Inverse folding.
């Protein structure tokens, strides 16, 4: 049961190639939870299951959160999966396409896989597409009451849902306290990823992240994409934005129609084999 582990700015994923797991159609919720567990398993922020067949792209990919739920898209996950394909010699051309449930993207390998650019698609603010409950609208500068505070938020999708909260100051404590409640708030029928965002200047923002199905996260590519797009939509930043996170920085270029080019690093951590005893424990 071969695994490959990478991290993108501290956001770590385990890549499982279905070819190495002929008896698995997909990993079960129980298998995902124990593999991702920091004490009982290999430990990660999620599992990348691929490559899979795709009718429109060169490769297909499914992304699973540590709680066993499935994510439509992950920017860091896509960069990691792209590096994996390159490392394994499954791609020869440094430019190729990948399909996720959240849409098709194009990856470009740079610096022999240590730096990767992904064309993430376009950010959309439409309530029906995100989704957010209520009348059809762009979800911009709306109020939401969480615990002891009222926040102003914007919602967006880049194939997966995001709730972005601009604030003058942010902290990990803020994300830990309010992130879990926002993630599961009734306003978001499919739950949501949460970003607390501070705008530093016209080309720099800072975010703290609470990821749907994963919790507090050191970095996120889709969160960086959504937050930069929201900041640009609000007129607070230009089209070239560096997103600062606890794990490091990602570069975002915002094109016409809020199309996103995301560039960031990937580091290889380990590869090895999981023993069958791993699955004797349920978590």
């Amino acid at each position: 049961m071969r695994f490959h582990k990478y991290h993108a700015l501290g956001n770590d994923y385990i890549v499982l190639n279905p070819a190495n797991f002929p008896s698995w159609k997909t990993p079960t919720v129980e298998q995902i939870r124990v593999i991702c567990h920091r004490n009982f398993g290999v430990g990660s922020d999620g599992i990348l299951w691929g490559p899979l067949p795709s009718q429109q792209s060169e490769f297909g990919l499914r992304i699973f959160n540590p709680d066993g739920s499935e994510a439509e898209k992950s920017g860091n996950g896509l960069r990691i999966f792209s590096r994996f394909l390159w490392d394994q010699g499954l791609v020869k051309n440094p430019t190729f396409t990948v399909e996720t449930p959240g849409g098709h993207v194009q990856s470009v390998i740079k610096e022999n896989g240590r730096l990767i650019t992904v064309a993430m698609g376009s950010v959309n603010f439409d309530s029906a597409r995100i989704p957010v409950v209520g009348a059809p609208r762009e979800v911009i500068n709306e109020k939401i009451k969480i615990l002891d505070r009222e926040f102003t938020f914007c919602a967006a999708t880049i194939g997966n849902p995001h709730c972005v909260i601009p604030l003058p100051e942010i902290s990990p404590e803020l994300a830990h306290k309010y992130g879990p409640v926002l993630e599961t708030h009734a306003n978001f029928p499919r739950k949501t990823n949460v970003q607390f965002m501070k705008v530093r200047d016209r080309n720099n923002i800072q975010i703290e992240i609470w990821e749907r199905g994963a919790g507090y996260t050191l970095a996120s590519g889709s969160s960086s994409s959504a937050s930069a797009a929201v900041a640009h939509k609000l007129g607070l930043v230009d089209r070239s934005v560096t997103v600062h996170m606890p794990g490091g920085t990602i570069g975002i270029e915002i094109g016409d129609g809020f199309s996103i080019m995301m560039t960031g690093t990937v580091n290889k951590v380990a590869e090895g084999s999981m023993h069958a005893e791993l699955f004797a424990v349920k978590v």
